[in-house]
Design a protein that fits this description.
The protein is of the alpha/beta class and 292 residues long. Helices cover 31% and strands 22% of the residues. The protein has one domain: Spore Coat Polysaccharide Biosynthesis Protein SpsA, Chain A (Alpha-Beta Complex), CATH 3.90.550.10.
Amino acid sequence: MIEGGKLIILAGGISSRMKKPAPAEVLPDKTLTQEANEKAKAMIGVGGDHRPFLDYLLYNARAAGYTEILIVVGERDESIRSYYGAKDRDNEFYGLKISYAIQTIPEGRQKPLGTADALFQGIKAREDWSGCRFTVCNSDNLYSVKALKLMLNHSYENAMVDYERGALEFDFSRIEKFAVTFKDHKGYITKILEKPSEKDIAVARGPDGFIGVSMNIFGLKHDVIFPFLERVPLNPIRQEKEIPDAINMMVRENPKSLFAFPLAEHVPDLTDKRDILPVQRYLETHYAEVAF
């Protein structure tokens, strides 16, 4: 295990899909609707006693052995700092030390530059993590203790959780758009492909029928990933800098540098207002006894 497990949580986006209007029957709770429109997605109070979604990710992170948390926040959002502490570094939260990095929006853009830029800004803010390994994940997914432990305790230089597509409990129309993974015969990533075609998915299917997808959780060595984050270009379709593109650069130039751990389990997700009630039900079922 890495001493004082380090976790970077990406929360710098502007939540544009979450802020889109939705019919009242999708989300009848007016308080949650207001939060969805005004706060970072991870701060919507979907849990018991109106706990924000991010609390549950932090709960799992602590249980997995992490102690240092860096949250990459958006320059326009104060909801995270107002809840977890206003100091730039080492806010105490139930045994965790929470720090922040700010992902700014470049002049002339309406949105920040994407997940690779968020991670780049994050590790630039923690130069003291140079030479260390860290885990990085989204703020709007609830990764299990098992998944977080895999990324903390692995013995590879870099790794990712490779989720079995069939175990995810989303509508198929949503799942079929998830980025699929391609591996060599030893389990090392050769490519992550976003928005795959049916032909791509057929090629990605393993001999046992396993189709791996990325849910954006990686265990990475700071000094290995940094140069690729620094020079990853804008994605030609999304016009953002994305972690999968940086990963693809890394594995092309350094084969066998990212191992894929297969895992079959659901990953709750908060993308838009339609996700809020299902996530509430999931937390009621699986985290009813959570107490920090």
